[in-house]
What does this fold into?
Amino acid sequence: MTAPSPAEPRDAILPLLERIAAALERAAPSPPAPADLTFADAFLWGPERRLIPVPKVNRVAIGLLTGIDRARDTLLANTQRFADGLPANNALLWGARGMGKSSLVKAVQAEINATRSGDALPLKLVEIHREDIEALPDLMAALRPDPHNWIVFCDDLSFDGEDTSYKSLKTALDGGIEGRPENVLFYATSNRRHLLARDMVENERSTAINPGEAVEEKVSLSDRFGLWLGFHKCSQDEYLAMVAAYVERHGLKAEPDQVRAEALEWAVTRGSRSGRAAFQFIQDLAGRLGQRLD
It folds into this structure.
């Protein structure tokens, strides 16, 4: 009786392996096509780790951002230097909620591009969500070979509890062994100056073998930002100036004294005075007047 040759089992299993491979290819989605980086000036870094163009950005004109003049001028100057190929710093915009931190980042990019000469490349903006911050090194790598200058923007950045993704941010800001790409700056907004919750710092202080070193390791994250811009609660006069600027900008037909009284009442019911509260009041006012906002 002749024993089967070693080749026979292999020949019998090959068709099965080919069918398995074909099924896996059909089940696996094809990789997305690379984004056309000339299609838009703003992008989202999606969970699929690819750039998604944003044709129309939700932004406020820089002239409407009142009460934050110093922060506005400082960030605009820093961004202009970066767009011109000069040294510039990563920026952390921290402080009171609703005072225009994220609006300022988007407004500055638009202002820079509006004043660029015809042959100059536009400044690009890409937003990365807080939940995707661990993918920041991949984003940096994707932007490194592009000829445009990029602002990578993360809104409402903070870390809580046992979250360790802040380490990815520290590495990306320092750039690791390659260094941060010369065509990339990182701008972040946060309600916290040091980005980390107080209980995270206190927990490290109470449990670490060397409390001082542990706390330093956590709060050093904010040191990666060369530019700190503080946003504080606005005064009543600043709040009313914001309201007046919106009324003029949108051409709302209302008596100034009535607008002032209603705006103050709105702030009282909201429990705060801020740029966000001012714009929410304007939306309410425009709706009651039957007028559309531009």
Q: What stands out?
A: DSSP finds ten helices and seven strands in the chain.
